[in-house]
Amino acid sequence: MIIEHPLLGPRDAQEFTCLGDASLINRPDWQEDDAVNRFYEYLYLRDNPAGEHRELWYHEQGDRSWLVVTRNTVTHEILRVELAIDVARTARSKDRT
Amino acid sequence: MSTDNRLEGGLVDRSSSVRFSFDGASYTGFKGDTLASALLANGVRLMGRSFKYHRPRGPLTAGPEEPNALVELRGKNRREPNTRATTVELFDGLEADSQNRWPSLKFDALAINDLMPSLFAAGFYYKTFMWPKAFWEKLYEPLIRRAAGLGSLSGEPDPDVYDKGFLHCDMLVIGSGPAGLAAALAGGRAGARVILAEEDFIVGGRLNAESFSVDDKPGHEWARSVFDELSSMANVRILTRTAVIGAFDHGVYGALERLTDHLATAEPGKPRQVLWRIYAKRTVLCAGATERPIAFPNNDRPGIMLSGAIRSYVNRFATTPGKKVAIFTNNDDGLRTVTDLKAKGVEIAAVIDTRTDGPSIDNVTHFQGARVVDTKGRYGLQEITVEQANGKTCRIDCLALGVSGGWNPNVHLTCHQRGRPVWDESLAAFLPHGVPEGMQVAGAANGELSTAAAFATGARTAGEALEDLGFKATGGKLPQSEDDPVNISPFWYVEGKGRAWVDLQNDVTVKDIKLAHQEGYRSVEHLKRYTTLGMATDQGKTANITGLAVMAEATGKSIPETGTTIFRPPYSPVAIGAFAGRHRDMSFRPVRKTPSHKWAEEQGAVFVEAGQWLRAQWYPQSGETHWRESVDREVLATRKSVGICDVTTLGKIDIQGADATRFVNAVYCNAFAKLPVNKVRYGLMLREDGMVMDDGTTARLAEDHYVMTTTTANAGPVFRHLEFCRQCLWPELDVQLISTTEAWAQFAVAGPNSRGLLRKIVDRDFDLSNDAFPFMGCAEVTVCGGLRARLFRISFSGELAYEIAVPTRYGDALVRALMKAGEEFDVTPYGTEALGVMRIEKGHVTGNELNGTITALNLGMERMVSSKKDSIGTVLSRREGMNHGDALKLVGLRPVDASQAFAAGSHFMKRGDEASAANDQGYMTSVCFSPNLGHAIGLGFLKDGANRIGEVVRAVNPLQKQETEVEVVSPHFIDPEGERLRG
Predict the structure, then answer these.
(1) DSSP-derived 3-state class of residue B807
(2) B112 DSSP assignment
(3) Is the peptide bond between B218 and the residue preceding it cis, with omega within 30 degrees of 0?
(4) pTM summary value
(5) Is B612 in the same domain as B749?
């Protein structure tokens, strides 16, 4: 597989480590009353779609960027690649508003 | 009978004759021959024995699809089993041997299997070797392994070198038959970067095997002229002897290039084979088609081969498999062989056409609507029996029989991304469907079986791809060649009494397939696994479709409904060595050496692998005969005076930024917010699920600057985790991370005299006194007269101890300086074993304890987990199931009888309890002999262990049938108050 790195261009997938579902970016608030339950859902209850999936990939043999790769798990087609830090910043700013 | 079967013409080089041997007998062939063609030319038809029944077999094909003629090449440690004689290029001095026979190819004792076919029918392993159960390992399996199977390995290391390489191109053309050459020409002339991959050692594909002309030239001459033109283009790379073995995601292809297999001796150091990873923007698959046989009783005798293969032997290799040849066909293409044989003066015994409406041929015995129903000839074909349309049978003498059941497009690579081919009635064949992104198929691989159609589709397909890529195709006139239609009437097998072989490599018959159906196997995937149809080195290239047709008939379904099994990479066999490439032996993974490695070698250190690192394990001194002597001495000397240990391998992560404190505080579960500058603190890192991930010390060098250490094994994973936290969880923090593990050489200086030693190393302006630089202090200092260094007062051994770090390039100099300065204290270097003994004596945990299932509570560190802040893992560490009263707790263990030992991994049982999983009380994680206490000690996790100090339990090790009574004690065996390290 080839991943189109937003900063470095096309890179072979073997340079990366895959972590899984990009929903790990959305870490719950530890001060909520039901924090244990929220964290349980955050950590263990993941979607496993046959189709479009947003995943976290780490460019371990490269520039150490975490990327959010939108991949079709059936065809392996890669539809979008973003820097995870940008995705996380957007998510955090939405949280605040 | 030598060269008896050699004909005129052909593409062999008669000016260079080549000597070779097969099963010890010497023969002569020509350059340009394959092993199979040279053997046939010498009148040798018998080349192997079949897998199960040890039936005599000869080549069925003239190419890579060969199921029968598998031989062992070369000898000793270069022995290569299961090599297809039909693809082995002949070279002077080639040594080949037949395989799967004993004592000889002609007399094979295990051919007795052939007399017991009922025993070896489909599923025979499962049915026959069921009982008694105990016989399986000792009797059945060894027996089967010896009887079945193909060639054997030498068991010695492969002396050859294999490489891996990466290639990039605009257009990859797979196959160099008429379609492939047309496509490559289009690409080359348009200026695109083209790779043309051809499995054979010359380009041309079937153009070399057929007798018809292209643009009024013989086909092979035209192919040669195109090869010359392509070779002259800088933008075209031709890879002959290169099989594309797989189509992977995003236009990535695997290809195996055989560089030296055709040479008697390769240039030393040059790779034998290269496994290429080709990144192609577009791919034109021109893989051609493979002929399939018709199954009929006793259709496996040497001399019976595919009709098109006979044309290859006759036209390209100037060899006939016999002086008198019959042809059995269900299509027009099979009849071409008659013309070609006659042109070379080979006698045609008869032509048997299953069709009643096929074209008639003059001047040969011609049976229409007929079939071959039996054959004779123990070691090779002598006679066939033909059943004519009117039901009468007749016998015909012949030495070879060419069989054609039609052609199967080579769709394999189109299926590697889960494409499923579709059935085409008019061709009676599967055509590509759902091909991988970026791939287009042309020529016979796409069902365009005439040469003219191959040229046209090859050029057109390449043109479309080039246009998409922004190249301007130059067009040009298409070469002129035959454009005969395909006339075929599907015919799969002949009913009859004898065994009709479908898969010759795995000895699967028509009857086996019907039996599998009878026994309830309906899916082709199950059929494959039950009968072994389509397995092993040839992957059923000549067998699968016929097998499907038999299955379809048995189920009453159509062939398309029955479907194919899934085609998976590799397309053709690849040596494991090629996959390994240079990653073998010491190059399997990189070795990391510590800065003191050279010095430690000079001391005669014994090294141990710790991850990728090589670390000194102990330093034997003269007279020491057992490793324990060295380790005990190192421990005692360190605790008595001072010892030095290279701890560079611990991970070091530099953390800087305005928000560095917030970051450190959030990744450790214990409080870090108030750690003063110039202080070090122990940190416990949890995973988000509340389990302990790692531990280490973190030093605060400045308001906005921390240096974190990790365990050696977790340096990579922890860094990855911290980057995840920084980028994905807290992107707003102003913090940067960098791994500095390799940047600093770090040594532990431990023992009561460590301060005295360091006073001679650290420059005088720095006050090392206990008041000025107490336990858990850290500082940036200079050593040895001005060299910048970092000094940490931390202790893994439990002694007064320091860790001192200098830039890596000074590591060797520093260890020598430390040893010199330590002479007056009898300083002792110590290795990882002594390090381990001292940390167990002190009750410090390491990877043995932090095994991924352990919580802070298990370690007795639950009070460290701060509930006043957000940090990774704190929320889920509060889960009820991880906090029950019976939870495992870290304890120390000592033998009740001090002379007894025990092993790590032992499980604890109460006295009097049966040793069973139900009674499990916990387990031992670390064990060593303590030279200070004079007996074995251990650390382990025991249920409710903190409240069981003083209790005696049993440490049970059923694997080694060992059981020891142990007393539960505090994990701190030495100096539990910590007076030494604060002294």
Answers:
(1) strand
(2) G
(3) no
(4) 0.89
(5) yes
